[in-house]
Amino acid sequence: MFKTVRGMRDLMPVDAERMRHVEQVSREVSKLYGYEEIITPILESYDLLAAKTSEEIRERMYTFKDLGSRKVAMRPEFTASVARLVASKLRNEPKPMRLFSVGSLYRYDEPQYGRFREFWQSNYELFGSDRPEADAEILMLTNDLLKRLGLKNYRFKIGHTGILKGILDQEEMGEAKQNSVRQLLDKKSWEDALAVARDADVSQKCLAALERLFETRGEDAFKVLETVKETVSGYDGAVAAADNLWKILELVKDSGVKLEITVEAGFARGLEYYTGMIFESYVPALDVALGGGGRYDRLIQLFGGEPIPAVGVAQGIDRIVLALKKQKVSPKSGKEKSVVVISVKDESMGKALELSDMLRKSGLAVEVAVMGRSVSRALADADRRGVAYAVIVGPKELEEKKVVLKDMDKGEQKTVLISDLTEAIFSGSK
Q1: Domain ranges of the chain
Q2: Would 232 disulfide with which of 47, 197, 238, 269, CB 3.0-4.6 Å?
Q3: 13-326, superfamily in CATH?
Q4: CB 414 within 8 A of CB 364
């Protein structure tokens, strides 16, 4: 008996419906904010995908040589593919440019709760603006999506890569060691991150600032940022980064949108290309990020394009589904307007098919009973699957241009004119 490959999943109808619901709401939000959908390949050049991701992700990519001996990989995230597109086919498009993508991604991670080797994301990226209002839009969009899905008690963890980079650049720490520090911070290994800084012979002032920053976090965003600015005094790049984050959060506040925020000065994300604000959304009861993103102003240049500032977010569809299930939030299934059409006799099957087509054209989800079962067994099957209405088509009623309509929830039935059938169903489902 064949089984799924480890880390891959079969999604049964209920789970598939949940996934597609999150995907559909993600797409609706993209349209509301003016993001145009693009579709990029699952398979890309290894060199493209490895160019500016983390060493950890490079090691976990699905890679192989194709029949032309080219080294290729299955995409572990969207941003590199989108950057390739922006640097080439979209390079002359007017700015700002807002792009949306959704689909499956692949990483050879150890399977565990909320982590799969094949997973789904929806991706929003805004190109062309280096202003704080672009960052604020990405935060507000993420909040809007989670709110529309009905998720409760979600929060944002927010930081700025420029705070750490401003200190380490001034201390003349090389990029490789800075990346090591960021990777350790992403894993919450604060002591190990400090050890890397010590080994790089940074100043005592730097070590003291880093140690204090790693402990600086809180829900009063502006109070935290005041502490950050005091801690990094003398490191001009770090102060500018704190000011930039202040402006972003001030814009969100002024918009009237209320975000539950924790600002964390020592926060870092695994990808190496971030240059500004970074954030993750999460629910405290689930020990994984639901989504995350930030600013990456130099990525397009890595792929041969002009310097284009950019900010974006990837929403983890699988993880959002897990959070919604944990909170017992289910999408509307559409069953409240679902119909099964049952033909009493074979000779009335043609009419049953005609009626099913008529009802579908009005927007109803309609099945036809195709197993040749008795009316009672067909009704029992419809009831088991939660179908809302049954239309029973019999020769006797057809002579009067009527059918029997049964409300499966109430157990009530009545004979209605075929001309009134659609209205009877819609009025009954209100």
Answers
A1: 13-326, 335-428
A2: 238
A3: Bira Bifunctional Protein; Domain 2 (3.30.930.10)
A4: no
Cα within 13 Å of Cα(81), Cβ side: 23
Name every residue whose Cβ is closer than 8 Å to that of residue 250 and which is 6 or more positions away in sequence.
222
Q: Is the pLDDT of residue 95 over 60?
A: yes
Give the residue from 241, 243, 279, 286 showing the smallest Cα distance to 261: 279
Helix, strand, or coil (residue 381): helix
Domain 335-428, what architecture? 3-Layer(aba) Sandwich (3.40)
pLDDT tens digits for range 121-167: 999 999 999 999 999 999 999 999 999 999 999 999 999 999 999 99
Q: Are 96 and 34 in contact (CB under 8 A)?
A: no
User: Integer distance in angstroms from the first to the last C-alpha of the chain?
Assistant: 47
- Tens digit of each residue's pLDDT (9 = 90 or more) over 74-87: 999 998 899 899 99
Q: What are phi and psi of 396, to 5 degrees?
A: -65, -50
**Angle of the 161-170 helix axis to the 175-186 helix axis, nearest 10:** 140
161-170 vs 204-214: helix crossing angle, rounded to 10: 170
